[in-house]
């Protein structure tokens, strides 16, 4: 039986795999997608994994660079949408199984953000995400953006997702995690599915 630390490391590897695959796929995007791609990529390049659990939880630190600011020199509300979209979606990685919330965790149905306090540019924030409910077709993840000392909650999110099959071209982009995932579930490479 795996130890709690082995489970933690496995959950972290599952989350890290999404970042690795995302970066490989982002490099293939058409050049005319550059504006949104760069904002999306900035979030994915700067989220630092702090912790994860096989229960569908993940924590990140993120430096609020000037690229996230509005004219008031605080985090733009739209930036929070992209940040939370990525940070909460990754909480589905540790609960993924074959054909069940695999890479990119489906599509967003709704992303409800409550802004409580302005996030200062130059601050590093703590993002916490936790899968509250996950079924065959729908999932709901809650998240918070807090000060590093956890004394200030800047904003919260409730993210509802709909499961969607992984695109065929995305399946072809492999990362190291794929072998561990396939061994765990007995799929790929001729293995028989355990589900």
Automatic annotation (TrEMBL):
One Pfam family of this chain: 4HBT
InterPro entries, A to Z: ACOT13, HotDog_dom_sf, Thioestr_dom
GO MF, one example: fatty acyl-CoA hydrolase activity
Residue span, Thioesterase domain: 74-152
SUPFAM superfamilies reported for this sequence: Thioesterase/thiol ester dehydrase-isomerase (SSF54637)
Annotated family: Belongs to the thioesterase PaaI family.
Protein name: HotDog domain-containing protein
Organism: Lophiotrema nucula
């Amino acid at each position: 039986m795996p130890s709690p630390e082995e489970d933690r490391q496995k959950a972290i590897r599952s989350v890290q795999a999404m970042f690795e695959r995302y970066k490989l796929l982002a490099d293939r995007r058409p050049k005319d997608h550059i504006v949104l791609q760069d904002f999306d990529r900035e979030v994915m390049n700067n989220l630092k994994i702090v912790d994860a659990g096989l229960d569908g939880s993940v924590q990140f630190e993120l430096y609020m660079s000037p690229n996230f600011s509005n004219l008031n020199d605080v985090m733009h509300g739209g930036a929070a949408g992209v940040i939370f979209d990525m940070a909460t979606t990754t909480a589905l990685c540790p609960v993924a199984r074959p054909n069940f919330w695999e890479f990119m965790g489906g599509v967003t149905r709704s992303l409800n953000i409550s802004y409580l306090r302005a996030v200062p540019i130059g601050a590093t924030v703590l993002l916490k995400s936790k899968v509250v409910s996950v079924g065959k077709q729908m999932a709901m993840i809650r998240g918070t953006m807090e000060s590093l000392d956890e004394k200030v909650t800047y904003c919260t999110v409730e993210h509802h997702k709909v499961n969607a099959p992984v695109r065929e071209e995305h399946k072809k982009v492999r990362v190291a995690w794929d072998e561990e995932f396939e061994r765990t579930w007995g799929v790929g490479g001729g293995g028989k599915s355990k589900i």
